[in-house]
Amino acid sequence: MPKASKGRPVLLSDEMQQGKQAQQEQCTSCAAGTLSRDRVSTALWRGDDLVVIEDIPALVCTRCGERYFEDETAMALDLMRAGKGAEGSPARTLSVPVYAYAPQGRGREEQT
Ligand SMILES: [Zn+2]
After folding, report:
1. How do residues 30-76 score in pLDDT, each as one tens digit?
2. CA 66 – ligand 1 centroid, Å
3. By three-state DSSP, how is residue 97 classified?
4. Distance between Cα 54 and ligand 1 center (Å)
5. pLDDT value at position 46?
6. Among 19, 111, 9, 24, which Cα is nearest to 70's?
7. What is the DSSP string of 33-77?
8. Who contacts 28 (Cβ-Cβ below 8 Å, separation ≥6)?
9. How far is ligand 1, taken at its centre, from the CA of residue 46, in Å?
10. In this structure, are residues 44 and 5 in contact, taking their beta carbons and an 8 Å threshold?
11. Strands of 35-46's sheet in order across
12. d(CA 56, CA 62)
């Protein structure tokens, strides 16, 4: 099963079908927050290209910010990662700064 980039897909539909209120889902990451519906964006790599998908329906923990996608959404994102549904002209383009990894807190060994 393909893994969602951020947040594990969570099975919500079963519980909704059982008539449970979906609004008060508990966060399984911090076990303290509740999840509220929100729209999020995520970035994913397609080969060498970084693609940003925005306006994704998600459940976001009100406490730790962990994001959960419903199965349907996670599948759609996987398809978009594979290039389906994200062809043609993008809604907009961003220019993204790229940095080389630079560990902090330890002085670089300088040559003197
Ligand atoms: Zn949480």
Report:
1. 999 999 999 999 998 888 888 899 999 999 999 999 999 999 999 99
2. 5
3. coil
4. 21
5. 84
6. 9
7. -BEEEEEEEEEEEETTEEEEEEEEEEEEETTT--EE--HHHHHHH
8. 8, 10
9. 29
10. yes
11. 35-46, 49-61, 67-68
12. 17
| 51, 44 Cβ separation under 8 angstroms | yes
Count of all residues that appear for the chain in the document: 112
Contact 4, 11 (CB under 8 A): no
Question: How remote is the CA of residue 83 from the centroid of ligand 1, in Å?
Answer: 31
CA 12 to chain centre: 17
Q: Residue 105 C-alpha to ligand 1 middle, in angstroms?
A: 28
User: Token match 């995520």: residue?
Assistant: 42
| CA 59/CA 39 separation, integer angstroms | 8
List of domains in the chain: 1-14+24-86 (3.10.20.860)
Which secondary structure element, helix H or strand E, spans residue 61, and what is its range?
strand 49-61
Model-wide pTM > 0.85? no
Mean pLDDT in the chain? 81
Residue type, 112: T
